[in-house]
């Protein structure tokens, strides 16, 4: 993959096209950092996005395959994606990443993903049980697409300087990595050979530690500090952990095979927040009980947006002294103002950092500025 400028578009114009307000970004960082530390900021932060400006519309928006093959095209698409965060002048802290897919860490053991123009890369290669049984931590080295991702991360820094944050590639969590490495045979081994599964999870924990450390070094980010998801910033936790495979396991399997490794990975980087898609109350409660987990995020599955009981989940988050980061769907009868009022009840308890773009549009606020000012006045 080419990591040099290969497109007629001049990526060195990107920092100017951000139209950044450094003072506003510094304020957003202070507010978010205080929230994640359990302190009260001068205003409860809200995350919003606004339309692109004319010169931002000129930034290339490549498909997945083109971006994967050309570092500067990927950089352009990533920057285009966060210009709206700059434009909203709310409390998002814009950041970008090398978007090589959920399986990129497995390139460190020789597994590579398939690439598609219309969807994210996907890992269909796996190691056998016998191959995994022979693996040691010394076998976990930057290679293939992961090594290229480090190069592209350095290219991002060369072009963008300190104009925005650069966060880690999609690194997943120990159990998700274990599932990716072995494939669906992983579920049989949970029952048939727990000692082997623990060997695999120890390897994946080490893989998580090493890949995060390599990426944070390449991106110039401190061990206990992080930008993430285009909007998030914290100074008392270094990483995000994904538990999407964990979400389909039962309580005993979660307790035995997932949470101990998640806790160790979070501790290594001074804290973490955790994402998973779907609903698994045992997983939610287990995550919230980990001392070094600072917060949680749910992926609301289309068609099941209301499956999570908002007030119950937020009560759990608040009682645990954590932060929920992300958006909540609007209720069918809610307008934008009612939606923000519902979210603000928990934000003012220090338990919610809301991505609130659903308050805009039909039956909502006309602009991000209107929504932002309404929020601050609550």
What does it look like?
It is a single chain. This protein has 15 helices and nine strands. The protein has helices at 14-17, 22-36, 54-57, 64-69, 71-88, 129-134, 144-160, 174-182, 185-192, 194-219, 251-268, 281-288, 310-319, 336-347, 368-377, and strands spanning 95-96, 165-166, 226-228, 232-234, 239-242, 272-277, 293-299, 323-326, 352-354. The strands form three sheets. The chain has a five-stranded parallel sheet with strand order 5-6-7-8-9, sandwiched between helices. Strands 1-2 form a two-stranded parallel sheet. The termini are far apart. Mean pLDDT is 97; it is low at 1-5. By secondary structure, it is α/β, with parallel strands linked by helices. It has one domain: TIM Barrel (Alpha-Beta Barrel). Strand 3 (226-228) and strand 4 form a beta hairpin.
SS-based class: alpha/beta
Cα radius of gyration in angstroms: 20 Å
Percent of residues in helices: 40-55%
Low-pLDDT runs: 1-5
Report the portion of residues in β strands. 5-15%
Number of strands: 9
What about the largest sheet? 5 strands, parallel
N→C terminal distance = 50 Å
CATH architecture: Alpha-Beta Barrel
CATH class: Alpha Beta
Overall number of domains:
1
User: What is the count of DSSP helices, taking H or I runs of 4+ residues?
Assistant: 15
């Amino acid at each position: 993959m080419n990591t040099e400028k290969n497109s007629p578009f001049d990526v060195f114009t990107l920092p100017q096209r951000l139209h950044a307000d450094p003072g506003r970004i510094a304020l957003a960082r202070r507010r978010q950092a205080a929230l994640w530390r359990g302190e009260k900021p001068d205003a409860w932060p809200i995350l919003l996005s606004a339309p692109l400006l004319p010169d931002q519309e000129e930034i290339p928006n490549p498909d997945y395959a083109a971006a994967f093959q050309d570092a500067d095209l990927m950089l352009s698409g990533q920057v285009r994606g966060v210009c709206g965060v700059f434009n909203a002048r709310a409390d998002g802290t814009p950041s970008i990443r090398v978007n090589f897919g959920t399986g990129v860490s497995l390139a460190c053991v020789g597994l590579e993903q398939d690439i598609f123009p219309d969807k994210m890369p996907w890992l269909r290669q796996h190691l056998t049980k016998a191959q995994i049984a022979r693996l040691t931590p010394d076998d976990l080295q930057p290679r293939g697409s992961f090594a290229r991702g480090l190069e592209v991360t350095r290219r991002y820094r060369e072009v963008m300087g300190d104009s925005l944050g650069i966060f880690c590639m999609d690194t997943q969590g120990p159990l998700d990595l274990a599932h990716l490495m072995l494939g669906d045979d992983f579920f049989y081994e949970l029952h048939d050979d727990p000692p082997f599964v623990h060997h695999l999870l120890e390897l994946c924990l080490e893989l998580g530690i090493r890949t995060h450390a390599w990426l944070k070094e390449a991106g110039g980010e401190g061990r206990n500090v992080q930008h993430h998801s285009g909007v998030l910033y914290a100074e008392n936790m270094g990483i995000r952990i994904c538990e999407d495979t964990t979400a389909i396991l039962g309580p005993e399997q979660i307790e035995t095979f997932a949470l101990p490794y998640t806790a160790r990975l979070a501790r290594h980087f001074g804290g973490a927040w955790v994402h998973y898609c779907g609903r698994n109350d045992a997983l939610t409660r287990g995550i919230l009980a980990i001392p070094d987990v600072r917060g949680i995020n749910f992926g609301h599955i289309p068609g099941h947006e209301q499956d999570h009981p908002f007030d119950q989940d937020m009560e759990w988050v608040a009682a645990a002294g954590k932060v929920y980061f992300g958006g909540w769907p609007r209720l069918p009868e809610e307008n934008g103002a009612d939606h923000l009022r519902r979210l603000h009840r928990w934000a003012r308890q220090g338990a919610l950092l809301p991505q609130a773009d659903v308050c805009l549009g039909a039956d909502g606020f006309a602009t991000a500025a209107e929504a932002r000012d309404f929020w601050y006045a609550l």
